[in-house]
Write a structure and sequence with these properties.
single chain; 994 residues; alpha/beta; Rossmann fold; Nucleotidyltransferase, domain 5; Alpha-Beta Plaits; six-stranded mixed beta sheet; 38 helices; 22 strands; globular; DNA-directed DNA polymerase activity
Length: 994
Amino acid sequence: MKKGDHLFLIDGSGFIFRAFHALPPLTRKSDGLPIGAVSGFCNMLWKLLTDARDTSVGVTPTHFAVIFDYSSKTFRKEIYDAYKANRSAPPEELVPQFGLIRQATRAFNLPCIETEGFEADDIIATYARQAEAVGADVTIVSSDKDLMQLVTPMVHMYDSMKDKQIGVPDVIEKWGVSPEKMIDLQALVGDSVDNVPGIPGIGPKTAAQLLEEFGDLESLLARAGEIKQVKRRENIQAFAEQARLSRQLVELRTDVPLELDLGALLLEPQDGPKLIGFLKAMEFGTLMRRVAAACDCDANAIEPVTIEVEWGAEARGPDLDAASSADTGEAAADAPANPAKAVVAKSTDGATPAELADTRIASFANAKIDTTSYVTIRDIEVLDDWIKAARETGLVGFDTETNSLDPMQAELVGFSLAIADNTGNPSGLEVRAAYVPLTHKTGVGDLLGGGLAENQLSPRQALDRLKPLLEDPSVLKVAQNLKFDYLVMKRHGITVKSYDDTMLMSYVLDAGKTTHGMDTLSERWLNHKPIAFKDVAGSGKSGVTFDFVDIDRAATYAAEDADVTLRLWMVLKPQLAAMGLTRIYERLERPLVEVLARMEERGISIDRQILSRLSGELAQKAAAFEDEIYELAGEKFTIGSPKQLGDILFGKMGLPGGSKTKTGQWSTSAQVLEDLAAEGAALPRKIVDWRQLTKLKSTYTDALPGYVHPETKRVHTSYSLASTTTGRLSSSEPNLQNIPVRTAEGRKIRTAFIASPGHKLLSADYSQIELRVLAHVADIPQLRQAFADGIDIHAMTASEMFGVPVEGMPSDIRRRAKAINFGIIYGISAFGLANQLSIERSEAGDYIKKYFERFPGIRDYMDSTKAFAREHGYVETIFGRRAHYPEIKSSNPSMRAFNERAAINAPIQGSAADIIRRAMVKMEKVLGDAGLGERVRMLLQVHDELIFEVEDADVEKAMPIIVSTMEQAAMPAISMKVPLKVDARAAANWDEAH
């Protein structure tokens, strides 16, 4: 190498990371070998080589090398054993790809360099300084801040994702110091990713100011006494040696023993047949054709080479050695997680998930969506071309259009596809979308609403083509609220496999911050307002179902949905990794889509005669209440009218505590009536009782028969995964989670939910799960011991508080303890407890005070949780799910107090919700492994309860399996400090089974 030459140094480990996280999962079709990272690596390397050899861009390398980490065991471990100690094992599907990527580098005819005991950064530093010494220019292809200490007028960095050169001015602009001071800056700041300690309380801006004032690290440490800020001065003095240690860790070595000298890095032309043989073996058809064209080779005449796949300990990759041999399978994927405390994983090139996420956010926020470019597919050959392109890309946005929001009865009107050219443009910014109309109607013709519009594909023909794509696990399908599309496709004989759901991604990232509908997400992340449904289908009386929308207008609307969804995936996916929330999405959200879809598809039987009889009974009871209400009021009025009721209560009767709404009417909310009833007013109590009866009648006994499916003759509720802040599921159409279980009427409604002939309904219900979670989270010794010993927790609490023996305890004393136990979880006030127990507020306040005195750990938990929420804006479940409370710092005292109560409850309720989610995800496999399969079918989830339909002969076998799966659901991620307990019964109807 000589003056005027130009050396390109590629951080191979960084390319591995970017390829793995930038592209969807991909497997080799012939044998299922994971190859997504290899595919991305090869495409990125080919693009870099192609661009680098283009003399029009001004930078042409003469020498070229790809540098890898040998392993995580380097000389820095000898200096500081905790260095990179928090790094997690690489994903299981990435492990075999490390060796394949090294083979790919050699297939490109490029030097593949690694040195045992050193990191890739050290090798890069050594080559860079050697090249600089002979007068050559150097470009380091990376954005890693650790390499910025190498930047000089002759050594530049290049961020290939942002297409940006990084020189001396860029380092100064970003960090506030020149490259030669980056070592001292990093020594002060530390690095949580690499576990470099630094000095507590010193961030990049402060470090830059200190180095500007004192010159370098040693001068700063020697003159620390001159620092005016007391806390800062004390920290620097106390952690001086830690800063010196950190400097040793971050300073790159420039004396690595190298097997290849600079001259051996001369960039040779690609060996076309060699590279094509490798690409053909990996089944990378698109890139193979590009290489063949560039190298003027006949790909058909070249045989695939033999590929050696390294698994387990044989495979070398970033931090692979940190994983023990036991960290495989579910145990590794389900390791204990606390994202607030966990170190965010990054590749050894410093290209962190956060950097990728930031790049994607900025890129897609500025990328314009051209709805005029969408295609309407009316020809089967054109559809075949789109499906082929989706297969080659390995990624497709997908959406269905129907004539109903009920997936169990909706008619499929059409579907849309979106494809990003990830192989040619890893940013994914180039998205093309199309709509396939199937059953649009003209609106004129026969009495059924018009004949089919012309020039549409046959639904059967189109779905026959679509089925292999949607069922191909090597192609990732991306949808918004996939469960709907999953059910629609399932009814057409198609089971969607390998998918991501952008709604659930958003939910994991931002539960409590925002809603997760596509329109909201599009405006937030893409700066694009999608076409509203009403703009194409109309609204109100003039509105039509989608099958009557003109195809051209429908195509733009539908294709846009798929386009926007795919772009959202590009933006949201890396954020999961950046925020340490990938595990939550992949273990608690995505797997539940199929589980819930199957539950909804199964439905549950109801007895219409029971409901009809109950409707009559409720009507009679409501009429009796109405007579009593009229007598108490002294006149007849419309009880359901808030205005008339308010005038009676506060106008005519002059009851205290009345307040008016913004409309000027008296407030007659449930809370107002409950407060009045607690003060002894008879009429409000009767109104509350009447409202409960009439709601049960209208919502359940009258309405449930209308939900019976005309074909299955069963009721199919719909579950929402992303509608609560804490992770609890909700159900609708009909809502089966609000049937009261503590009232006689509610229990009677449950008797109408029945098992099919020859079956039983089996109810498995967690016992006091939220109190058990509280005992675990707050680490309360008395509660933990009571649960471990199987003692009545409410009697134990009463005994602790009131000094009453458990044996022979009066029921009212236990009832008070129970009210406090459950009330504390929800942040109950003295006022609320007083109302619940019908006691004075001062007495209730004394109870709460005494409770905290007996169980101080609960108060500590509440205080620490509120403090954490105020600092971070969110709280976490024991599994790491985040619930956000952005208004917890509100200047409005009521709003602030509400958010504080919610934040205290969320880790408890959310952890319980996560536990039952885990049980549901595991359940069907466990039952299948036990040979029970479809003979035991999970039908419903209602808060802490799962309901199954079981063949009579399998009840005894199924019950212990279900109970064990639920009780062990937290394992292996979390080892609960208290045992979980599940009560299970089987009977002919839901009430008897509960």
